[in-house]
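Private note to self, pasted from the team thread so I don't lose it. Backbone tokens:
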């Protein structure tokens, strides 16, 4: 009898395989990093074959760790199903026959498609049902024109890799975000789910199918694209390796997986994930809500044959990545965990603000020509102030997103559920509660992204009966309540808003 469900959590910097029990508790986890490739300023790539290799390694590694930690070893036949969750928008194009990528994966943070984006914003219109400008595709896709999304990345590969366009027209190339790439390698099925498809700028929000008009505009052959499925169904069985024969039955983009793992099943429930970037999602129910405040309209999840659930999303490009930058580029800290102690060595930010627009600004601005700044510098400022300003940047950016969500949805959040690596930074979480003026709650199982994918897979094979059963698994670990005065809160936030304007129009 199956006792466990597992998930592949393929992130921007590493890949993990986590095994969960019926209560949603972590039984075993294995994790391995992969290289970050920076060929030019603003370009970010991964090697898809390295990611596949790491995926196989962590699947075996977690099984071995489980066997060492439990008297009864966890065998592959005790795992009911595997779910997949992934860094979204990261784009892979590969040869259908050989399985070889034609180019490195172009990562979601990559800004090389800015010329394509500018061109799309200026052209089009009259003879088309699509408008012009940054919102040209927004009505159909819920997304503004931005370098973030997969569609323009596919176009870049077809335009710049020798022979790729001709091979794509002949039906010899396949596209996928990382979920599709891994499911194809695991099972041979060329599929994606609605959440990942909604991040390509190629899927129509209402039909939940690829939009022929946008495909034509971008010059992308439909034959390249995976079949769009629900987030919870059996896509195929694993054909090789330690888990051969086990069904892959869940697929959710990482932020939607966290929404699902946090059991935000009702309209008006929201979560914020603090990882490489920061992503707040608000469940808006079974109808898409078009944003007027710079948010993305996206798919939340779709369980089997049930109606799709939509969400509003505020995406922030650089949060945890800023701490990594302090470590790797400046050498201010030796490990990411040290940033909190350094930030606590000072009482406040010393009058400085750090706006990390390294990949432009995402929600609610969507300015790909912005670049990072530190403002308010004096000789008084030391490395402690820089560390504190780096942490505060995450909280301020989250406040901007929450303000936009209130405008769009009319929902006033009572609490914010949080997850991701940065939620163990007590200083950041307290400052977040202070800046938002709402309680911030961390769940007992902080691995909500992987848990969401495991939940989707488990529901598909009957390991869990329904979402009510999943709700019972959620438990509160810690809560931070606001302690800052309204005057101080608004004064600090006003300084932040002023600092953000200094990043605008930097790239010409």
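Design output:
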């Amino acid at each position: 009898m199956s006792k466990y469900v597992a998930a592949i959590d393929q992130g921007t910097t590493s890949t993990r395989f986590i095994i969960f029990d019926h209560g949603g508790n972590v039984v075993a986890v294995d994790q391995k990093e992969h290289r970050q490739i920076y060929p030019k300023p603003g370009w970010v790539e991964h090697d898809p074959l390295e990611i596949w290799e790491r995926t196989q390694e962590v699947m075996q590694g977690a099984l071995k760790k489980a066997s060492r930690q439990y008297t009864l070893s966890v065998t592959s036949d005790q795992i009911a199903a595997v779910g997949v969750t992934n860094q979204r928008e990261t784009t892979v194009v590969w040869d259908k026959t050989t399985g070889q990528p034609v180019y490195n994966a172009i990562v979601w943070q990559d800004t090389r498609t800015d010329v394509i984006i500018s061109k799309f914003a200026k052209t089009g219109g009259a003879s088309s049902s699509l408008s012009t400008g940054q919102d040209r595709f927004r009505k159909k896709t819920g997304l503004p024109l931005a370098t973030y999304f997969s569609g323009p990345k596919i176009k870049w590969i077809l335009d710049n890799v020798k022979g790729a366009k001709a091979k794509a027209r002949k039906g010899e190339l396949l596209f996928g975000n990382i979920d599709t790439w891994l499911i194809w390698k695991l099972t041979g099925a060329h599929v994606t789910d609605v959440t990942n498809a909604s991040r390509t700028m190629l899927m129509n929000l209402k039909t939940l199918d690829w939009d022929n008009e946008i495909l034509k505009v971008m010059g992308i052959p439909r034959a390249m694209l995976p079949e769009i499925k629900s987030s919870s169904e059996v896509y195929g069985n694993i054909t090789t390796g330690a888990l051969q024969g086990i069904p892959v039955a869940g697929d959710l983009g990482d932020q939607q997986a966290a929404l699902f793992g946090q059991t935000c099943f009702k309209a008006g429930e929201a979560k914020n994930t603090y990882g490489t970037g920061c992503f707040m999602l608000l469940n808006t129910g079974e109808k898409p809500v078009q944003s007027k405040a710079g948010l993305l309209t996206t798919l939340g999840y779709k369980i089997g044959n049930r109606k799709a659930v939509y969400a509003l999303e505020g995406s922030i490009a650089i949060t945890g990545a800023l701490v990594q930058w302090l470590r790797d580029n400046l050498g201010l800290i030796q490990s990411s965990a040290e940033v909190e102690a350094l930030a606590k060595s000072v009482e406040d930010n010393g009058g400085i603000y750090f706006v990390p627009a390294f990949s432009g600004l995402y929600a609610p601005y969507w300015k790909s020509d912005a670049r990072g700044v530190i403002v308010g510098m004096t000789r008084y400022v030391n490395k402690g102030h820089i560390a504190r300003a780096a942490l505060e940047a995450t909280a301020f950016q989250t406040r901007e997103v929450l303000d936009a969500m209130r405008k769009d949805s009319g929902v006033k959040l009572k609490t914010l559920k949080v997850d991701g690596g940065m939620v163990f930074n007590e200083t950041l979480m307290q400052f977040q509660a202070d800046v938002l003026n709402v309680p911030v709650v961390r769940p007992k199982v902080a691995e909500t992204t992987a848990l969401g994918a495991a939940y989707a897979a488990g529901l598909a094979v009957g390991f869990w009966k329904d979402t009510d059963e999943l709700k019972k698994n959620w438990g509160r670990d810690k809560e931070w309540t606001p302690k800052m005065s309204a005057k101080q809160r608004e004064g600090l936030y006003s300084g932040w808003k002023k600092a953000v304007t200094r990043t605008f129009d930097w790239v010409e």
